[in-house]
Amino acid sequence: MAPVQLESAQLVPAGPASAPAPPAPGAVTAAASPGYRLSTLIDFLLHRTYAELTVLADLLPRKTDMERKIEIVQFASRTRQLFVRLLALVKWANNAGKVEKCAMISSFLDQQAILFVDTADRLASLARDALVHARLPSFAIPYAIDVLTTGSYPRLPTCIRDKIIPPDPITKSEKQTTLHQLNQILRHRLVTTDLPPQLANLTVANGRVKFRVEGEFEATLTVMGDDPDIPWRLLKLEILVEDKETGDGRALVHSMQINFIHQLVQSRLFADEKPLQDMYNCLPLQLEVLHSQTLMLIRERWGDLVQVERYHAGKCLSLSVWNQQVLGRKTGTASVHKVTIKIDETDVSKPLQISHEPPLPACDSKLMERAMKIDHLSIEKLLIDSVHARSHQKLQELKAILKSYNVNDNSFIETALPTLVIPILEPCGRSECLHVFVDLHSGMFQLMLYGVDQLTLDDIEKSVNDDMKRIIPWLQQLKFWLGQQRCKQSIKHLPTVSSETLQLANYASHPVGNLSKHKLFIKLTRLPQYYIVVEMFDVPGNPTELEYKYHFLSVSYAEGDDSPATALLLQQFKPNIEELVLDTKSGRQMKSGVKRKLSGDPCSIEPKKPKRSGEMCAFNKVLAHIVAMCDTNMPFIGLRIELSNMDIPHQGVQVEGDGFSHAIRLLKIPPCKGVNEETQKALDRSLLDCTFRLQGPTRHVYLTYENQLSEPVGGRKVVEMFLNDWNSIARLYECVLEFARSLPDIPNHLNIFSEVRIYNYRKLILCYGTTKGSSISIQWNSILQKFHISLGTVGPNSGCSNCHNTILHQLQEMFNKTPNVVQLLQVLFDTQAPLNAINKLPTVPMLGLTQRTNTAYQCFSILPQSPTHIRLAFRNMYCIDIYCRSRGVVAIRDGAYSLFDNSKIVEGFYPAPGLKTFLNMFVDSNQDARRRSVNEDDNPPSPIGGDMMDSLISQLQPQQPPQQPQQQLQLINSNEPGVIMFKTEALKCRVALNPKTNQTLQLKVTPENTGQWKSEELQVLEKFFETRVAGPPFKANTLIAFTKLLGAPTHILRDCVHIMKLELLQLTQKTTVPQEAVSIIVPIIYDMASGTTQQADIPRQQNSSVAAPMMVSNILKRFAELNSPRPGDTSTCLKNTGCCAGYWSGFKATGTNDSYTRVEVMESGTCFTMANNLNIPAAVEFVKNQQRPKMTEIIESWFFLSKLMLYQSRL
User: Fold this and answer.
1) Which helix (H) or strand (E) segment is 220 a member of?
2) Which of 763, 862, 865, 1206 could pair with 779 as two cysteines, CB 3.0-4.6 Å apart?
């Protein structure tokens, strides 16, 4: 039979393979194996490497890390070997040119010789055999005529036309006819072929037959002719096996693998006697998928808890679960449970067969059905269904043990998650039941009970897993434990403390030691000498119920000793106390002879299914009533005994308020000693009633209204005032209620920052701050119909006022717009630190700030714009806007610029020079740096960069020549920005900002002649300028006086430096022990005619001191001797001295008119004051500190300075 050509251009013989023909005699072996081009060989290697890489990229993600590494190493090794061989071949080819050329020549010569010999042999054979009877054909005369006449050759054979020109395509009708005939051929072939039953689902259409096996594959076949011996041709193969877990939703078989399977199946269709049966046998992949799922399950989730016992590819898969040897223990008869998945050998058309060892119990048909079939390929679902059924079996065995112990057992099994719910104490809520689970992976019991510690549960699990019958004693223990918990929960709302034990000194000898071991001691916290003892017993015949007995116990404590208490009285409550409690509301008693079972809840007798967790089953009404009754009645019993002991008549304990409260009413109060009989009788007549009652923790709000005499009592106005007050309470309560709801979510910093001090329904007072020294009060104003806020301080260290008074109006407007307490606290938190710094600035008008000494100017003005926006103005010249942000950050901008247009300047203000440079020093992305910038606002930056420097420059400008010799200050040009340099005849001075802080001015003095000045004197001058002249408070007159002093002669300036040194020295001294100051008044008289000031001779008191007035008198005499007034000068030296001294930092002068002069010299807490009035005796107040070693020197230096200033003024 002729060979059939395949799609790959291979020739495969259709019949038996024939033996190959022998080679021709003398044939060369090299000619039979032709070589390959090097480019073709390299192309083959690259295609192979790329194909392997593609396969690895698709298959490696589904494998483990170690398997991926092994596959990659094997691929790299194979590829390296191939390319090493290729490299060796290339190197050999480059060096074998000559050998190859000689071999080609030798081969060519041998081939020529063979051809010559073969030609001779064939010619001889033709002459002897084939051409013996050969004759020449007749001449082709017709063909010759055609060629000669027409020039063409029309008589070619038709076979040439058939070979070259393709035939015309068939028509549509012919195609339909052919396909219909092919369908008939296929049906005939299927009827006559042994078809496996698995391929019964087939479809014949369009000349094709399609076999579909659900869950396995779909194959499309056809035939190439009607001969029965023509093999099947496989057109298309599609794998239907799916695994969404391990395959990640992608196809399980790669396209290259499908091509290989396609060729394999096609070869089986060619060679096999039963081609369709063989095709089905080589395609099933279900067991392979299940095996791969098992390996992944072991690797990722189950571990050693599931093991592969046996796997036979394409036949069976056996797995083992609940292997107790793996878990390290063995329980029950079967230590290993197996699940086997196999193909039915008798009928392979059946689905996969599932078997279990040992067999599954027939406990639940649905569980059995799910565990015995596999609808889709998921080995984990199959294992879970199997262990689910076995878990149900184990719980059934445990339930049978409980049933044998308790005939009325009320436990039940939940099948959704294998759980046995065991009621411990009837009636039992769902949360009070013991839940017994079975771990699906290991098959071990797991227990859960709310409120029991984990160690106890672990012990119970170990016991039950070793022997199921051990659960019975544990249930008994849990029953008594649950009874105690119910008692504790029942009295949780009452003032009690419960414990399972009580240390008593006489426990062994007292009857309390004979009580049951299952008991609970309940201590009344308001009556610590009394206890309620709850005793618990088993109920015969009902293992899930308890019987309670209640006892009253009184103890005594030794005074001043930590020894245990001593039990005194133990008395059991009446047995029918429960009936009395239960029938109190209904108003009738239980009939005699009727008994109840004393359980946790007497409302239920027959056991029922456990209630849901929301239902109250655990409340012990009897115990709650006994505790409440004792807590209420025992104080009255003690009070009644004491009243009786003191012979005070009373009515005993009376029940009030429908049995909800008790009282003791006195009948007569004994007479008081020291009061006459008539008064006593009048008092007795005035006494209406005297009753003792218990006051609970209630809050009373009293609303008092005054009624005018002109209006009727209880009129409309009273109702209106009450409604207004009630409206105020409701408005404030709305804010407080919202505040209470937001407390769990309030930021932690606000919890630390604030606390609620008072809330009485009419007013809410909050204290805030680091020391809680500030307070804010919120209440509703019914007249204005809005909230009213007031601020205050609390405690001695809170300061004189609340810093938020500045923005009180803005805070009130904000709270009325949005009444939110949390928002208000946040604003207070964000603004407290900035406002504390701002409020330290001087805001009162002050003298001496400018050259107009008689005009008062306001230094700083605080203009609140909103609760978080504050505008700060300085001398009505400069202005900054301060915005308080959260997290301790403030935003500052120059307020001289308009808020709407930064290019426009607000009228009346000037841009602050150097503000941006100064603020940039404190800008930092770090939160700590921003917090430091806020803290530094406590020392607000001084405006020395502006008017102070301008004042200094103005003093250095050329001035009018003095009438007497005086040094003139000369300005020196400086190239350094922000630096002023000037000089006198003796000194060269340099003034600049402090480079460390940029907040203060520094003076650097260099002498022209180093021999005239000491370095110590220059340092004193520089230090005095920085601390007393350029320091706060900033006054222009102080700077003017200092610049004039620099122009004084050298010997005068040196004396002034000595005074500066003394003042700096006194400022640095610290008084170790502060003592009380002593005040002495000395009268003086000023004579306008002579211009002298002297002490008035007035008789002094006997106990007055003489030393201080004598010191003042001597100083005045010395001053009068050294400073005689000039003729015609109506001013006084003392007055001028005071005015001049006012320019000096450290000396303070107020008032410069002709009628009054006041000069104060401040030194270490000591004040010397002189007052002068024309023709009117004044007082000299001398406040002296007892430790005054250099007071005389200071006063003498001050008069010396006054003399110097007087001298300058006369110049």
Assistant:
1) strand 217-223
2) 763
Phi, psi (deg, nearest 5) at residue 817? -75, -40
Number of CB atoms found within 10 A of residue 881's CB: 18
Label residue 651 left, alpha or beta by phi (over 0 means left) and psi (-120 to 50 means alpha). alpha
Residue 732: exposure state from Cβ atoms within 10 A (0-12, 13-18, ≥19) = buried
Mark out the alpha helices in 572-715 (DSSP H runs). 577-582, 621-645, 677-686
Nearest to 545 by CA among 595, 489, 475, 609: 475
Distance (Å) of CA 238 to CA 206, 260, 952, 953: 19, 13, 100, 100
Using the structure block, give the residue that is written with the tokens 């003690």: 638
- Report the phi/psi class of residue 1205: left, alpha or beta, with left for phi > 0 and alpha for psi in -120 to 50: alpha
N-term to C-term CA, the chain: 148
Look at residues 67, 72, 74 and name the one whose alpha carbon lies nearest to residue 292: 67
* Structural element, H or E, at residue 883: strand 878-884
- List the beta strands (DSSP E) in 128-173: none
HSE-CB for 979 with a 13 A CA cutoff: 11
* Residue 835 neighbours by CB under 8 Å, 6+ apart: 803, 804, 806, 807, 870
Q: How far apart are CA 39 and CA 21, in angstroms?
A: 33
C-alpha distances out from residue 931 to 834, 853, 941, Å: 11, 40, 16
Distance, in Å, from the CA atom of 826 to the CA atom of 834, rounded to the nearest integer, reads 14
Question: Other C-beta atoms within 10 Å of 9: how many?
Answer: 6
What was the pLDDT predicted at 368? 61
Element (H, E) at 1087: strand 1078-1087
Task: Report the distance separating Cα 667 and Cα 656, nearest Å.
Answer: 17
What span, in angstroms and rounded, lies between the C-alpha atoms of 767 and 794? 8
Identify the CA nearest to 410 among candidates 540, 231, 542, 293.
542
C-alpha distance from residue 1111 to each of 1063, 1076, 1106, 1122 (Å) = 21, 21, 9, 17
**Cβ-contact 613, 431 below 8 angstroms:** yes
Q: Give Cβ neighbours of residue 927 (< 8 Å, ≥ 6 apart).
A: 887, 888
pLDDT in tens, 125-158: 888 888 888 888 788 888 889 889 998 888 877 8
Interatomic CA distance for residues 425 and 897, integer angstroms: 81
Torsion angle in degrees (nearest 10) through CA of 296, 300, 302, 305: 80
Q: What is the pTM of this model?
A: 0.43
Per-residue confidence at 388, pLDDT binned at 50, 70, 90?
confident
Distance CA(172)–CA(750), nearest Å, equals 90
Helices 38-59, 65-95: inter-axial angle, 10-degree rounding: 180
pLDDT digits (tens, 9 = 90+) for 1100-1125: 655 556 666 777 777 777 767 766 65
Strands 306-312 and 232-239: unpaired
Q: Which residue has the tokens 């036309």?
A: 161
Res. 738: pLDDT tops 90: yes
Whether the predicted pLDDT of 928 surpasses 50: no
**Parallel, antiparallel, or unpaired for β 857-858 and 860-866?**
unpaired
Longest dimension (CA), the chain: 192
Omega before 427 cis (within 30°)? Answer: yes
Give long-range contacts, CB 8 A cutoff, 24+ apart: 893-900: 895/871
If DSSP codes are grouped into helix, strand and coil, which group holds residue 841? coil
**All residues at 6 or more sequence positions from 340 whose CB lies less than 8 Å from its CB, including other chains:** 316, 317, 318, 319, 354, 355, 356, 357
CB neighbour list of residue 598: distance below 8 Å, 6 or more residues apart: 546, 547, 548, 578
